[in-house]
TrEMBL record:
Residues 1-19 form the signal peptide. Residues 64-151 are annotated as: Disordered. The lineage of its organism: Bacteria, Pseudomonadati, Pseudomonadota, Betaproteobacteria, Burkholderiales. It comes from the Bacteria. It comes from Sapientia aquatica. InterPro entries: DUF4124. The keyword Signal applies. This is DUF4124 domain-containing protein.
């Protein structure tokens, strides 16, 4: 354990040391080595470490406009794409609203009609809960589509 601790402490000490700080290794009466930046105790020796190498940070690149051969979409094409996108979102919103209305009619405010296979009340409650969750999901989809259309 001590054999792993000493190199780790040395690395930490070297990593935390400033460029102009001195590092000392001190050995106590039991032979335990400690590393530090103060070597005024008995049995301390200065460690000769190589100088700290530094590199300047790379210069920040300035944002330039797109190169001349970069593909550009003309205004007419872009407006057509936006109109198509809006139409697709509108169609999806209408379909989701229709689905919501159908689910709401079937749900009947939490009291849907019992089906023939639901003699067991637990099955009826399970279907009612699934309808409620489907209504919530559908409402969330409608809200998301309306937000997207608003953008």
């Amino acid at each position: 354990m001590k054999q792993l601790l000493i190199p780790a402490l040395m690395l930490i000490s070297v990593g935390l040391a400033h460029a102009d700080s001195d590092i000392y290794v001190c050995t106590d009466a039991n032979g335990v080595k400690t590393y530090g930046n103060v070597g005024d105790a008995k049995g301390c020796k200065k460690v000769d470490l190589p100088g700290l190498t530094t590199f300047p940070a790379p210069a920040a690149k300035k944002v330039t406009k797109a190169p001349g051969d970069f593909p550009k979409v003309d205004d007419y094409t872009q407006k057509k794409r936006e109109a198509d996108r809006k139409q697709i979102l509108t169609d999806e919103l209408k379909a989701e609203q229709k689905k919501y209305d159908e689910l709401s009619a079937e749900y009947k405010n939490g009291e849907p009609d019992r089906q023939g296979g639901e003699r067991n009340y637990a099955k009826y409650q399970e279907r009612t809960q699934e309808l409620k969750e489907s209504l919530n999901r559908s409402q969330q989809n409608i809200d998301a589509l309306q937000r997207e259309l608003g953008n």
